[in-house]
Amino acid sequence: MFTKLFAVIKKEVRQLKRDHRLLFVIFFFPVMLLVLFGYAVNFDIKNIKLAVYDQDRSDISREILNSLSSSEYFNIVAYINDHSEINKYLDDKNAQCVVVIPKDFSKKLYSGQDASIQYLIDGVEGTTATTIQNFVNAATFSFSGKFAQSILTKYGTDLPVPVSFEPVFWYNPSLETAKFLVPGLIAMILIIIAVISVSLSIVREKERGTIEQLNVSPLHSLSLLIGKITPYLIISFVNAGFILLASYFLFGVEVKGSLILLFLTTLIFLFASTSMGIFISAIANSQQVAFTFATFFSLLPSLILSGFIFPIDNMPVVIQVITNINPTKFFLVILRNIMLKGVGIETFYDQVLYMILFGSVLILLGTVINKKKTSAT
User: Fold this and answer.
1) Rounded to the nearest 10 degrees, how much is the dihedral formed by the CA atoms of 231, 234, 235, 237?
2) Mean of the pLDDT values across residues 238-242?
3) For the chain, what is the mean pLDDT?
4) Do the beta carbons of residue 232 and residue 197 sit within 8 Å?
5) How far apart are CA 132 and CA 50, in angstroms?
6) Is the Cβ–Cβ distance between 49 and 74 less than 8 Å?
């Protein structure tokens, strides 16, 4: 059995060596995708363009503006002298936020009246606008606390803080986008390459008419499938190593947990991914159809239904159920646990079992469909 299996693997490797374009795509595409997504997709917001309309022009208003501009989040790009200029700055996108300090601001503040500052935020990009709002709220709240404390100190009174709020972010203290995105990118890139390459390699045999020769050979269907996917499994595994190295050197993402556990679970994920390729090759009869199906079933679910960008817990219940037919969802949980948290298999063993079940069911379905098609012809 192993001699026949080795013969199929050897034949597939020779075919692969002759297909230079596919080899280029398999080795170059993953790192290129990692670099493009890693640098292009970035949720970190710094240097927010701030325009200032300071009608008060007092020491206290300048102190507020200094507290904003001294942080890395705000960059004052213009000082406005007339109310009519505000819309122009926002319309032309020369400013993302305009701070309006009213004329009687300091007077109201020192007399104990309600003193307010207006922030006009460009709301076209909702996520960015919400982040800017959180930043200006935090900056204003911090300044208000310091000002109240300084006034009370001046009159010899101290203001104790009843509850001290000190948030600490575990696993990603600086909230870097790269550390959040890179595990998802690894899973997405691996499944795309594995599904597309495996499905195309089997369907290509159908188009050339050589699949009939393999079907009438003494090889068992399962042995034939294992022989054909083994070279792609090894290549995808090597690719996983390249992507991890690129993640470390380009984005500084370290693996905190066990490397052995990481590679073992990656192998199981590749088994589940290649099973999708086998299933697609069983229902598709041309490379164009196989490529379309492979792209559709690997890229979109990995991007939308895996928790890569959008939290699954916020989705409707029906969509949450559908996400379970996507192995990327389970592998992403494993990657984040190993790479960011550094925990062991006891925290994600159920995800591993899901991937093994997913891959076994799809390989079984693919084998049954292939047998039915062969017997029908």
Assistant:
1) 160
2) 83
3) 83
4) yes
5) 10
6) no
- Long-range Cβ contact pairs of 36-42 (< 8 A, separation 24 or more): 37/181, 37/185, 38/178, 38/181, 38/182, 38/185, 38/247, 38/250, 38/251, 41/177, 41/181, 42/177, 42/178
- Torsional sign, CA 35, 331, 281, 304: negative
pLDDT surpasses 70 at 214: no
Rounded CA separation 353/278 (Å): 20
Could you give the CA distance from residue 15 to residue 19 in angstroms, rounded to a whole number?
7
307 vs 230: CA distance, rounded Å: 29
Q: List CB contacts of 310: < 8 A, sequence separation 6 or more.
A: 304
- β-bridge partners, 76: 50
Contact between residue 251 and residue 38 where contact means Cβ atoms under 8 Å apart: yes
Name the DSSP class of 308. S
Nearest alpha-carbon partner for 90 in 135, 130, 51: 51
List of residues 6+ apart from 269 with CB closer than 8 A: 187, 190, 191, 327, 330, 331, 334, 355
Query: Helices marked H in the chain — which ranges?
Result: 2-18, 20-40, 59-69, 85-91, 105-110, 126-154, 177-208, 211-215, 221-251, 259-283, 287-304, 317-322, 327-336, 349-376
Model confidence at 268, pLDDT cuts 50, 70, 90, reads: very high
Nearest CA to 50 among 90, 104, 106? Answer: 90
Q: How far apart are CA 219 and CA 206, in angstroms?
A: 17
Using DSSP's 3-state secondary structure scheme, residue 166 falls into coil
Q: What pTM, to 2 d.p., does this model score? A: 0.77
Residue with tokens 């948030």: 167
CA 159 – CA 148 distance, rounded (Å): 8
3-class state of residue 118 by DSSP: strand
Residue 362 C-alpha from the chain's centroid: 26
* Residues 152-180 pLDDT 10s: 777 666 666 666 666 677 887 777 777 77
* End-to-end CA gap in the chain: 26
